[in-house]
Design a protein that fits this description.
- The complex is a heterodimer of chains A (about 475) and B (about 325).
- With about 475 residues, chain A is mainly alpha-helical.
- Chain A has one domain.
- Chain A contains 15 helices and eight strands.
- In chain A, strand 7 and strand 8 form a beta hairpin.
- Chain B is an all-alpha fold and about 325 residues long.
- Helix content of chain B is about 80%, strand content about 0%.
- Chain B is globular, with a radius of gyration of 20 Å.
- Classes of the chains: A mainly alpha (about 475), B mainly alpha (about 325).
- At the A-B interface, helix 2, helix 3, strand 2, helix 13 and helix 15 of A face helix 2, helix 3, helix 4, helix 5 and helix 8 of B.
Chain lengths: ~475, ~325
C-alpha cells in the first residue's frame, strides 16, 4: 500500500480511538456536577438521607468511569499532538499560522485546566472545602467543553476555511473571528456536544439496565436511569434538527460531500432518496438501488424539484461515495433507534414509577444493547465529515497527498500495526472494566485497593 | 519598543517557553515515570502507596509534554516536521509506553483482582519504554541526528542514562512522600540508582563536545569556559550532596525533601548547559529558530494567550501540590 493511505489509516485509527473518550468525558463532566449538586441539595437538613445517599453513590461510581475515560482521552490525545507532525508535516508548514494558535489555545486554556483540577476532583474530597471541590468539578467539566470548542474550531476551519490570506503559499490570518466562527463551526460544535450528551445518556441507561438485569442494581440505579432517559429523550429531537441544519450547511459549502452521502452521481432535479444502494466508486454508479422518488431533493432543498449536484460535476475533487453513503446511514439509523428507545423507555419507566426493576426484560435488554450506541453514531458521523473532506486536508485548498509524510510505507505500516493492536486491546479492556465495575459496584466503590493504601505508621494524621 | 526587534525576539521567547515546558515535563513526569520503574521492586501493599503518591499529579505532568511539543508544532512548524520525522519510530514507541503507563494506572485499581498483576507489569513496562525512548530521542536530538557508528552509540548511552535519572527522581520523590519501611527502601533505591546515573551524566558530558563540533566550539573557548565551569561544578556538588544525604538519618525526617530538590537542581543545570550548547539552533547545525519560526503575527496571538494562561496554570499547579502536600496517605475517590 502506498504511504498516503497508510498515513491516513494510522491517523484515522488514532482519532477514532481518541474521540471515543472525549465523547464520554465532555458530557459526563457536567453530569457529575449535576449529581454532586443533587447530593448537596438532598443532604441538607430536612432532606431524605436515602435520596442523598443515592446521588452520592451515583457520583462516586461515575467519577471512576470519568477518570478511566479521561485517562484514555489524555494518552490518545498526546499521541495526536505528535501525529500532526509525523503524519502530515506539510500541514503545519502551510497552515501553521492558523492551526497553531487554535491548538495552542486548546492546550493552554483547556488541557491544563482539566488535568490540573482533575486530581482535586478525583481525590481531593475531604482535603479541600465542599465549595472548592465543587469548583474543581466545574473547572474539569468546563475544561473538557472548552477543549471541544478549540478543536472543533480548527476542524471546522479545515472543512470551511475562512478569514485567511495566502502569501507565498503560506496561510496567514486576516480575521480571527472569521477563522474561529467559520461557516460550519456553530453547527459542528452543537452537533458534537449533543452527540456527547447522547453518548453519556445511553451509557447511563445501558449500565443501569445491565445492573438491573444482573440483580446488582445500586441504590442509585433508578436515579441514573431516569437522568439518562430524560437527557436522551430531550437531546435526540434537538440533535435530529441540528443534524438537518448541519446537512444544509454542508450542502451549501461542500456539495460534493452531500452528493457522496446520498450516492448522487449525476446532477438532477427531484433527486430520489436512496434507502439502500451499493455505490461503486470505480464504475461511478450505484447497484441495487432502493429509492423514494424526489425525497432527497425535498430533504436537502426543501423543494420537490430542487437541484442536487452529482459527483460527476466534481471529478477528482470528491470523496469516495461508498464509505460516506454507509457511514451516513449508520449514523441516522442509530439516531432513529435512539429516538424510539428513549421516548418509549422514558414513558414506560415513568409508568413503573421510575423503578427500573419493574420494566419488562426486553426493554432492559434493549437498553443494555444500546450502551455504546453513542460511540457508533459519533464515529460514523465523524467518518462522514472527515472522509467527506477528501481528497483535501483543507477543503478546496490543500490536498492531503501534498502534505503527507516522507516516511517509508514499511515504517508507517509497522507503527500502524502497533497502534491498532494497542487500541483494540484497550477498547476491550475499557468495556470489560466498565462491565466489571457495573457488576461489582460495591467492590468498585469501597474496596478500591488505592483506598487501602494507608501508611504503615501513624504519620497520616500529621500530614493532613 | 522597536517593532522589528520585538518580532525578531519572538522566536527566542518561544524557544525559552518550549525549553521551560520541556524542563518542567522532564522533572515532573520524570519522577512519576521513575516511580513507575520502581513498581516491580515494591511489595503489593507498597505498590498502592507508590501509585497513590503520583495519582493526583500525573495527568497534569504529562500535559507539559503536550505543551512543549505543541510549541514546537505551532511556533516552529518546520522543525516539528523535521524532528518528528527523524524520530518517527522512537516517538511511536514512547507514545505506546506513555499510553500503557497512563491507562494501567487507572485500570489496575478498577479491574478484576486477578488482572491487577498484569496491569502492574504494564505500568512498569510502559514507564520503562517511555523513559528509554525519551533518552534515545534526546540523544539523537542533541547530536543533530548525525549518521555514523558513534551516533547511535551516543543515543544508546543516553537511552540508558535517562531512565536511571528518572528512577533517582522517583526514589527521592518517595523518600519525600512516604515514611516507615517504604521510605527506608526508597533511600536504598536512590542509592542504587545514583552511581549509574552519575556515570551516565559524566559520559554524556564528555561525549557531547566530542560528537558535535558546534558544542565543542561553544564550550572550550576562553573566557566563556571559565564562567561555564560553574555548571558542571554545581552539578557535581548537588550530586555529591544528595548522595551524602542519603547516608544520614535526617533524610528520613526533617530533610526528606532535600534529595528531591537537589535532583531538580541537577536537571535544571543540565538544561541550562544543553540550552547554551544548542542556542540559537532549534535543530542543531541545521535550522535556527528564526528559520523555523511561524509568522510574528501568529506568534503574538499565542504569546498573548500564554501570558494569561501560564500564570494561571502555575497557580493551580501549586494549589494542587499544596492540597496533596505531606506524606501520601489514603487516596480515595470521593
Amino acid at each position: 500500500m502506498d504511504a498516503l493511505i497508510l498515513a491516513r489509516m494510522q491517523f484515522a485509527a488514532n482519532i477514532t480511538f481518541h474521540i471515543l473518550f472525549p465523547t464520554i468525558s465532555i458530557g459526563l463532566g457536567w453530569l457529575l456536577l449535576f449529581f454532586r449538586l443533587r447530593w448537596l441539595k438532598t443532604s441538607r437538613a430536612g432532606g431524605d438521607p436515602l435520596q442523598a445517599q443515592g446521588w452520592l453513590d451515583a457520583y462516586r461510581f461515575w467519577t471512576k468511569v470519568f477518570a478511566l475515560s479521561f485517562a484514555l482521552g489524555v494518552v490518545s490525545g498526546i499521541t495526536m499532538s505528535f501525529q500532526f507532525g509525523t503524519n502530515w508535516p506539510g500541514f503545519m508548514e502551510r497552515v501553521g499560522n492558523i492551526a497553531g494558535p487554535l491548538l495552542g489555545y486548546e492546550v493552554l486554556t483547556a488541557f491544563f485546566l482539566e488535568a490540573g483540577f482533575l486530581g482535586i476532583m478525583l481525590f481531593g474530597h475531604g482535603r479541600v472545602s465542599e465549595k472548592v471541590h465543587l469548583m474543581a468539578t466545574f473547572f474539569v467539566a468546563f475544561g473538557t467543553t472548552l477543549s471541544a470548542f478549540w478543536i472543533l474550531a480548527l476542524n471546522s476551519w479545515m472543512q470551511t476555511p475562512a478569514g485567511y490570506e495566502i502569501v507565498d503559499g503560506v496561510y496567514h490570518v486576516k480575521s480571527w473571528v472569521e477563522v474561529i466562527f467559520n461557516p460550519s463551526f456553530p453547527y459542528r460544535l452543537v452537533h458534537m456536544l449533543l452527540a456527547s450528551s447522547l453518548t453519556c445518556a445511553f451509557l447511563l441507561i445501558g449500565l443501569s439496565a445491565w445492573q438491573t438485569l444482573r440483580g446488582v442494581a445500586q441504590r442509585s440505579a433508578p436515579k441514573v436511569m431516569r437522568v439518562g432517559l430524560t437527557l436522551a429523550a430531550l437531546a435526540i429531537p434537538v440533535q435530529i434538527f441540528v443534524g438537518d441544519q448541519h446537512g444544509l450547511n454542508t450542502l451549501e459549502h461542500q456539495p460534493a460531500k452531500i452528493a457522496a452521502m446520498e450516492g448522487v452521481w449525476e446532477t438532477e432535479r427531484g433527486a430520489p432518496l436512496l434507502l439502500f444502494a451499493l455505490p461503486d466508486d470505480k464504475a461511478r454508479t450505484n447497484h441495487f438501488e432502493l429509492k423514494l422518488p424526489k425525497m432527497a431533493s425535498l430533504i436537502l432543498t426543501h423543494e420537490l424539484d430542487g437541484e442536487i449536484k452529482g459527483l460527476n460535476d466534481f471529478r477528482d475533487k470528491h470523496p469516495p461515495a461508498l464509505p460516506l453513503f454507509f457511514a451516513f446511514r449508520i449514523m441516522v439509523g442509530v439516531g432513529v433507534l435512539m429516538l424510539a428507545t428513549s421516548w418509549l423507555g422514558w414513558w414506560l419507566l415513568r409508568r413503573s414509577r421510575w423503578q427500573p426493576g419493574a420494566l419488562p426484560k426486553w426493554l432492559l435488554w434493549s437498553f443494555a444493547g444500546m450502551t455504546f450506541s453513542g460511540w457508533i453514531a459519533t464515529v460514523a458521523g465523524w467518518y462522514v465529515t472527515e472522509i467527506g473532506r477528501q481528497p483535501y486536508i483543507v477543503y478546496g485548498l490543500i490536498r492531503t497527498a501534498d502534505v503527507t509524510s516522507k516516511q517509508p510505507s514499511s515504517m508507517i505500516g509497522l507503527t500502524l500495526a502497533l497502534y491498532i493492536t494497542l487500541y483494540l486491546a484497550l477498547i476491550v479492556a475499557y468495556v470489560g472494566v466498565l462491565k466489571y465495575m457495573a457488576e461489582k459496584p460495591e467492590e468498585a466503590m469501597q474496596h478500591d485497593p488505592a483506598d487501602r493504601a494507608a501508611l504503615p505508621t501513624a504519620a497520616t494524621g500529621a500530614a493532613a | 519598543m522597536n517593532l522589528m526587534s520585538f518580532d525578531a525576539a519572538l522566536p527566542v521567547i518561544f524557544m525559552a517557553l518550549m525549553g521551560i515546558a520541556m524542563l518542567v515535563y522532564v522533572i515532573s513526569d520524570g519522577y512519576d515515570l521513575g516511580v513507575g520503574m520502581l513498581m516491580h521492586r515494591a511489595t503489593d501493599a507498597e505498590k498502592d502507596v507508590l501509585v497513590a503518591s503520583i495519582g493526583p499529579f500525573w495527568d497534569a505532568n504529562e500535559t507539559w509534554l503536550v505543551l512543549g511539543i505543541g510549541i514546537l508544532l505551532i511556533a516552529f512548524p518546520k522543525a516539528h516536521g523535521l524532528v518528528l520525522g527523524e524520530l518517527y519510530l522512537p516517538v511511536a514507541l514512547m507514545l505506546v509506553g506513555l499510553t500503557l503507563r497512563g491507562v494501567a494506572f487507572d485500570f489496575r485499581v478498577k479491574a478484576h483482582d486477578s488482572h491487577k498483576r498484569m496491569w502492574d507489569r504494564l505500568f512498569f513496562a510502559g514507564s520503562t519504554l517511555a523513559s528509554v525512548s525519551q533518552g534515545w530521542m534526546l540523544g539523537r536530538y542533541v547530536s543533530g541526528f548525525g549518521s555514523g557508528w558513534n551516533y547511535p552509540l551516543f543515543a544508546a548511552a543516553i537511552a540508558a542514562a535517562l531512565p536511571m535519572a528518572y528512577v533517582m527522581m522517583g526514589a527521592t520523590w518517595l523518600v519525600m512522600k512516604t515514611d516507615g519501611e517504604l521510605q527506608k527502601r526508597a533511600v536504598q533505591w536512590a542509592k542504587i540508582a545514583w552511581l549509574p546515573m552519575v556515570v551516565g551524566l559524566v559520559l554524556i558530558s564528555m561525549a557531547t563536545p566530542w560528537i558535535s563540533a558546534t558544542v565543542r566550539e561553544r564550550w572550550f573557548v576562553l573566557p566563556e569556559f571559565i564562567a561555564l565551569l560553574a555548571i558542571p561544578l554545581m552539578t557535581g556538588v548537588a550530586l555529591v550532596a544528595a548522595r551524602a544525604l542519603l547516608n544520614t538519618r535526617a533524610v528520613l525526617g526533617p530533610l526528606a525533601w532535600l534529595p528531591f530538590v537537589l535532583l531538580i537542581l541537577v536537571f535544571l543545570l543540565g538544561f541550562l548547559g544543553l540550552a547554551y550548547s544548542i542556542y540559537p539552533y532549534v535543530v542543531i547545525d541545521q535550522l535556527t529558530i528564526w528559520q523555523a519560526a511561524s509568522s510574528p503575527a501568529a506568534l503574538k496571538v499565542i504569546l498573548f494567550g500564554t501570558c494569561i494562561s501560564v500564570p494561571a496554570i502555575a497557580g493551580y499547579t501549586v494549589f494542587s501540590y499544596r492540597v496533596f502536600r505531606g506524606k501520601t496517605g489514603e487516596l480515595k475517590y470521593a
